Amino acid sequence: MSRHRHVKGYINEYDDEDLSHDEESEEEYDNFSDDEIEHIVGGKQYLDDQLQDFYDQVDEGAYYQVLEVLGENCTELEVCKALVETDMKPAEAVEWILKKREEEAAKNKKKEEKKKEQEKAQNKAKHQQQQSKGGNNQSKQSQKKPNNNGNNKKPRAAEEEKKQSKGNQGQAKQRQQQEAAALSQMRYNPQELNADYPDVSLPDKVDSSLHDSMLNLVVFGHVDAGKSTLMGHLLFKLGNVDQRTMHKFEKSAKEIGKGSFAYAWVLDEDEEERKRGVTIDVAQKFFQTKSKSVCILDAPGHRDFIPNMISGAAQADVGILVIDSSSSGFETGFRQGGQTREHSILARSLGVTQLIVAINKLDTVDWSEERYNQIKSKIIDFERAIGFKEENIRCTPLSGLDGINMTEPATVPALTSWYSGPCLLDMIDTFKPAKRAYTKPFRLSVTDLYKSSSHGVLQGPCAAGKVEGGCITVNQKVTLVPYMVPCKVKAILKSGEKVDYALSGDSVDIFLTLNENVHDISLMKKGCVLSSSDHVIKIIKKFKCRIMTFELDIPIMKGENCVLHTNSNQVACKITKILHTINKITSEIDRKNPKCLGNNQTALIEVECLEPICLELYKNYPSLGRITLRSRAQTLAAGVVNELML
């Protein structure tokens, strides 16, 4: 998820509650005896021990996949237990949790019905008893209070309890109800479902030619390749980070024994990231070159956070692959299972067509030309094999920590004796402009939903993300899909500044005025789409797609449960049909209805999701028509949507 703590007025609404929680807990213990406190603490210790037992068995990557799908409405114990019960299969774990919740809801419903029947019987008996006692005034007074309770008027305490019980389940079910209602509203016929959209003319004040210089640049590679350090140092050299801030980072990093991570802290803003020395979320920063306006998307390199890397790469036009050229560093990331390979495949599958290979840490091998050529040769061969054109792949040697060959040509004799090419910044400046869908209906893929509380114009609910098509202007009416919530654009923030409009390719924060029936935007989640109200994005649960499989431990079979990634959305799904395999050379049908798919095969499959999602045909919106399938903390396949189905 992209970070937006740089937005003025952003606050974390839960900090105050978290800080006061411990004090409230201590006050509650004052009302119990020593024996009662020992019993309570013992029960908590038992739960902690039980949770630890599950933690020891759970794969961290699978845990985060389940958490991403279900959000924060499930407990740690619930997720861990589900993964243990389903042999670490995230999609099946999601089904297991939902099934358990349905069973629990049905059980509670039966209890509630039984309780109502008992109350009804008691009230009926009391009513008959009152009638049998006749018209005695004293008996009437004694029966007055029970009578009031029995005449279908529930005590206030019972009402409060009922409201509280409904509230606990209400938030968890509200998303599903909204999505189901939205899906029922959208009654498509097959022709409408897969029809092309009409072109939409841009407002007179909008000049799309001014946006051709905009680039979304994803930085990816194996963990510890130096991605955050490289880009943090680049931002510092370009003046985006002042000397005072940099000095503060250096001092704080040394205090926790991570002095070499100071430049990484420019992008790694979260406290947990700084303590662990690992990027977790996709960080977003902006800078200018001579002719380009660049948005950096710093993706995590650890395999546990590949879903976040997918979210970042899906927003990108071009990429920088960072390689650790130190002794055995390149081999570790490039071998089978290394993230250099998987990240490259994912980036290409998600639409990145131009690539800079930054061969980092070359100073650790004395700027060896032999080492540089060895890495360059292997990387170019691999990138060509996965679909990059050789003319769109460029390599450069550098040192991210020392800042050599980054913003100006190197002057180190050991490097200049054999390398005379451009520096990293010059290479970024010569990326070809990306193609934009300026005349398509408006679409914004939401990577974050939050509330801003600044005391000014920019306050209230905000949707952050990348404009995937069309144009958005202030005061324009849009729809938040799949919830079908009507909204009005109050303000647009781009690169930290207010603007009147945004075009396809821009990364923006859009402040919204919501429908009066929607009180809490936090009930919604990232992965939804802000859409033109005239031409709303399709909401479906079933589709056909053409995929290419990756290196698989187990063949893909019909009925396979996995997690579907599309932009920043993640949802559990099932492969319901494998229609046929496709010959890579001729693109003709190779074999119909195969039992399974092996390594590096191309096929047409049918996928069904467990909940409604927003999708477009690849031919209409390439970025919204790409999908990735993952299971067991492994990327199974990636592909494009060919047909939407009812």
Label the overall shape: globular
Q: Could you report the average pLDDT, rounded to the nearest whole number? A: 80
The helix count comes to 17
Distance linking N and C termini: 30 Å
Structural class: alpha+beta
Radius of gyration: 29 Å
Pick out the low-confidence regions: 1-32, 36-47, 135-157
Number of β-strand runs: 24
Strand content: 25-35%
Structural features, described:
The chain has 646 residues and is of the alpha+beta class. 36% of the residues lie in helices and 26% in strands. The chain contains 17 helices and 24 strands. The strands form five sheets. The protein has a six-stranded mixed sheet with strand order 2-3-1-4-5-6, with helices on both faces. Strand 23 (626-631) and strand 24 form a beta hairpin. The longest helix is centred in the N-terminal third of the chain and has 43 residues, at 90-132. It is globular, with a radius of gyration of 29 Å. The two termini are 30 Å apart.
